[in-house]
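Internal QA ticket QA-208
Title: Verify multi-chain structure generation after dependency bump
Assignee: T.L.

Test input:
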Amino acid sequence: MSDFAVELRDVVKTFQTPEGGSVNAVDHVDMGIRHGEFFSMLGSSGCGKTTSLRMVAGFEWPTVGEVYIEDHPQGHRPPFQRPVNTVFQNYALFQHMTVAQNVAFGLEMDKTPVNEIKRRVGEALAMVKLSEMGKRSPRQLSGGQQQRIALARALVKRPKVLLLDEPLGALDLKLRKEMQLELKALQREVGITFIFVTHDQEEALTMSDRIAVMSRGKVLQVGAPVEIYERPNCKFVADFIGDTNFLDGQVSAVDQNKVTVFVPRLNNDVVGMGNGQLKPGDQVVISIRPEKIRLSEQSTLNQNCLPVRITNSAYIGSDTRLEVEANGVKLKVWEQNHISTLDPRAYHQGDQQAWVTLFPENALVLPAE
Amino acid sequence: MLRKLRESKSFQGTLLVTPTLIFMVGLLIIPLILTAIISFGQRSSDGGVIYTFTLENYTRLVGFSTSCDNGAASCFDPLYVNILWRSLVLAFQTTILVILLAYPLSYFIARAPAKRRNTFLFMVLVPLWTNFVIRVYAWMMILRTQGVLNGVLGAIANALNIPFAPLEMLYTPGAVLVGMVYEFLPFMILPIFTSLEKIDNSLYEAAADLGANTFRTFFRVTLPLSMPGVVAGTILVFIPVMGTFIVSDILGGRQVILVGNLIQRQFLDARDPTFGSAASLVLMVMTLVVTYFYTRKFGLGEEIIIA
Amino acid sequence: MNPNRRAPLVLVMTVLVYFFLYAPIFVLVTYSFNSSKTNIVFEGFITQFGDAKLVDGNVVQSPCGPFHWFCELGKNKEVMNAARNTLTIAFISTISATIIGTLAALALQRYNFRLKAFSELALYIPIVIPEIVMGIGILTLFSQLFNYLNTALNLTGNLRLALGLGTVIISHITFSVPFVALVVRARLAGFDQSFEEAAMDLGANELVTFWRVTLPMLLPGVLSGALMAFTLSLDDFVITFFTNGPGSTTLPIYVYGLLRRIITPQVNALSTVWILVVFTAVLLLQWLQNREVKS
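Actual output:
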């Protein structure tokens, strides 16, 4: 038995455009989702994440390639024959049934005996903390409550994999953050594999065991949140997740992982970490995150220390967000405000001179695109 | 087979639409084709059809009959052309009158407070739900020589000491026109109402704000925006009027013969299905032509659907 | 600012038109109480109850009093037959047309297939051609077809194919289907397919999904379409005129026949009853609709 609960092997999904052409919504995607993990597909709209999810559910069939659930190829199996269940973005609760009937529906389809249905529906509702809502109509529930009923309805069937298609999209910010934690806790409790689709990177980082970043039908990178954030493998991922600074340049020397890059606009060399496959002469871009840049009054005598002028400063409370300039190159620097003081000299302001250190361990050298 | 059904969406679609197609093709398209075929045939002695190809029926319609009174080879009898023309004229007259009567009413309902609108609409629809034939009969009672209208007029005349002779209203083209207008009035009210209702109140306010008086607001804002409704209503009125025979039968008697009556008689009294089919086909082509040009100029009103 | 107040012309016309719409109905209903048997002039109400008595062509006394003609109507076998036929035809054709039309609406709204454009065109035809053209066409088809089959298969007596209830019902289905399809399609257009996907996701196959989820949610539209079909069938004159045979007379045909023969206030009584029934039915429907909206 393989490690994977769900696998997509070289899956392509082609759609016909109204103008008569065709477009690959999913373009040669390979993905393996492990048992019991919380796996997210992250990307902006049109990247193929929803289409991929729908192919696992069975609402679409791959044009090329195969979807495997528990090592069984799904082929053209319709959704009702697959051991997975979906939580829809708009919840899709049946308006003409009560909440309890909604939750019971899937069990009815399995021809579960009536007593067992009642028991399991009760359990499911208790799990989402909505036990008293059984007799209500979905119309009478708030957005957050509907979402939890949709969850209960899917989970009551004890599927091997739960698919969630941007389920928190319609909720307001506060509720969304609450639900993120609840969902994560629920997943740990129930132990099923969750495949979660979202365009909100903070959400993905918070909840996932692993994230697949997608763009234009392709998977760019798969990894744990920390990997995606700290070791993006390309410029797009570095840019999409969190905030970062980019410096274009050319490789002048390579020493195992340490890569020396000449940055024309700084007229200087910057040393960073590469992926081991770069050679001198390659066009690259250095990515360094604002919180990883050290701002100081004096030079730290590091290889990557530069004199800069602070051009802008925004006090956020927990941080101070600064914009600095060196040779016309603008960099974002975030400083945490460690000390509670009102003394303005403790917070860097605009128009000051300072030094920034781009520690080589924090400077990622990525191939230019 | 089930798998094939499941996989091919177009097969599913075709399957779902098949019963409809059976009815539409079998009872609509084939009959029309048959009508066309028969119109080129000849009448057999027992009122049946001899399937040949002859233009005799059409030439007769246009007026060139081969069996003439004075034994000549061909003569011109504009009888049928007159009938067609009269039907067209009546359809136009009805449509214009209906528009003139329906528009103020639709306007009134459209700009009435929302609560009352449904009631007013309801009141328009109620007569519609009584049967067509019954409504025509009602007019017969009113327009008769000893009918209600004459009775009322007579009473007024007597009260004013004016000499009064009962008007001969029934069995005249006028009676048929009144009957047609009455029958089809609601079909114009509904579409015009629908398109007038869509006009946001703020447009009237904007027009007033920019200096337009009631008159100009109507002609420059209201009327143009309500045209889709008028177009839809015209189609809903014009086509049926061209084909109706009951109104002219009951209210016009033998005096007023329209295309509808002509066709009806050919099939029932004269028992000449070939000639009747020809007339029927001509009627259909005429209405299609008028509809086509009308919708091309004014657009197809979705108000039809809503009405 | 009530715009209607500023245009007295509109108000006057409105009142006149409403009067125009209702005056004939008022006349119709009033005359159903006419004591004059010939029903040409309104001779007054029948005021005396008792055995039927006729004086100079006026009914001066009747067991039913002023409702004399309504009672006569009740005794009229032909009317009862016609009414029964009308309802039978309406029910059968409505149910059939609703099913067929709903399926067609689903097909046209959700699928692409080769015959799609043709189907849409075909459904549009009954709306644009005059009823009489359609009636003639169907009559021609049936008469030619029946003639041929009767002679070819040597059918006699009861087996002979002829115009009757069957042909009327089939024709009614034909003109009702486009309207049902239209109404249901409009309802389908705003229908979110995620409900059906959810049902399938939970284990329902296509048929179960349709039966338990799609249809219940589509029901208001389907019922609207059915109601429309029912009304069209009840009221139809022209098509029925050309496709009916002895024994399948409907009420409109019956009234038409009466009009060309003897006209007694019985016709008015029939009209009044018809109006009342329709009025009540519509009020009932409005009440039902209001109830649904509230819940």
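Spot checks passed. The longest helix of chain B spans residues 79-110.
Status: verified.
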